[in-house]
Amino acid sequence: MESAKVLDAKGLACPMPIVRTKKAINELESGDVLEIHATDKGAKSDLGAWAKSGGHELLKETEEGDVLKFWIKKV
Known about the structure:
Elements: E1 5-9, H1 16-26, E2 33-38, H2 43-53, E3 57-64, E4 67-73
Parallel strand pairs: 1-2
Antiparallel strand pairs: 2-4, 3-4
Organism: Gracilibacillus orientalis
Domain UPF0033: 7-31
Protein name: TusA-related sulfurtransferase
């Protein structure tokens, strides 16, 4: 999946992955995809809920070892 930007939020604890995601998505154009890499297990529920509340679309989420990866499309 092609991303307009990759956000490295590995090693950050809640709420920092959300704070950084919000800042990064504000820099994108509508329709762009933001790829987020996080290690905080709370990001799994937090990012999905945040995307939904902002009207964005969580396209995909995977887990590779201890790294959670998310793709969020900006509306």
